[in-house]
Write a structure and sequence with these properties.
By secondary structure, the protein is an alpha/beta fold. 45% of the residues lie in helices and 11% in strands. The chain has a six-stranded parallel sheet, with helices on both faces. α1 crosses α10 and α5 (64-87) crosses α6 (113-123). Bound molecules: zinc ion. Zinc ion (ZN) binds at residues 136-138, 211, 213, 254.
Length: 282
């Protein structure tokens, strides 16, 4: 998809991304990925040995280019977390592949960057309790399953109840948004969910999956959130983290549109709100 490149270009044009605040991740070592994935699955993906059924479920055709970007993206999420620890908020211009499971890919997701980053931060002793707050319109089923037995990570998914995946996992907290929900309903349920997740988990770090497939015209969304609604949502989550002094790393999550520039601008909202809030909070 072109949206990643367009997003970076757009943020540069807006003066938000520049050489002094932009970082480039490297390629993941197997040891990092094995914090959250089956070694056999990883090897078979890299060596193009997944079978037809596994590839269908993954939803993406295998190529060397796909392997290259797949091995970089989770390092980007981890790097974003490290930067957030230093600067309070940091934004990844990719990430949020929350349908990736321990030993299989699904729904265009191959590696679960959210689980990998959270597990890695905890293993390194950098944080004690991570809240993964996932507002992509689809449930973060892979994240919930991979981290089900990890008491130091709390998973909260705010998603449309009638959307993919058909068989839902159990996150530590699931907020089920009704089909065709509007801004008012959505923002209220989202904010209540976030406050509940904060109270239950008492995190010292938040990873925020700011998927924009909640947008009214998104072909995979099924709920009716406006651009202003997305902006209010992202503003709310990031502002609460700053108020509570909890570092927050954002990833872009899902978003679909034939107009890739319009889509890139939609993904830019969370970064714009982060930049404004960092300035406001000095
Ligand atoms: Zn999604």
């Amino acid at each position: 998809m072109q949206k990643f490149q367009l997003l970076h270009q757009y943020l540069k044009q807006q003066g938000i991304a520049h050489s002094a605040n932009t970082y480039r991740p490297g390629t993941a070592k197997m040891k990092l990925l094995q914090t959250s994935h089956c070694p056999d699955y990883l090897t078979r993906f890299v060596e193009n040995k997944l079978d037809a059924k596994e590839l269908r479920r993954m939803g993406l055709p295998w190529s060397e280019g796909l392997v290259r970007r797949t091995l970089i993206s989770p390092v980007g999420t981890l790097l974003t977390c490290q930067l957030a620890l230093k600067y309070r908020i940091a934004c990844h211009l990719a990430g949020g592949t929350h349908h990736a499971h321990y030993d299989f890919g699904s729904g265009f997701c191959i590696l679960n960057d959210l689980a990998i980053a959270a597990n890695s931060l905890i293993t390194q002793g950098k944080v004690n309790k991570v809240l993964i707050f996932d507002v992509d319109v689809h449930q973060g089923d892979g994240t919930a399953r991979i981290l089900a037995d990890q008491p130091q990570v709390f998973t909260c998914s705010v998603h449309c109840e009638k959307n993919f995946p058909a068989r839902k996992a159990s996150s530590d907290l699931d907020i089920n948004i009704p089909v065709a929900a509007d801004d008012t309903t959505y923002l209220q349920m989202m904010a209540d969910g976030f406050e509940q997740a904060l109270a239950l988990s008492e995190p010292d770090f938040v990873i925020y999956d700011a998927g924009v497939d909640v947008f009214v015209d998104d072909p995979l969304g099924l709920i009716d959130i406006s651009l202003q609604g997305i902006r209010q949502r992202d503003h709310y989550v990031l502002k609460r983290c700053l108020e509570l002094n909890i570092p927050v790393a954002t990833v872009i999550g899902g978003g679909y549109d034939k107009d890739e520039l319009a889509l890139a601008k939609r993904h830019a909202i969370v970064v714009e709100e982060a930049a404004k809030l960092l300035q406001a909070f000095g």
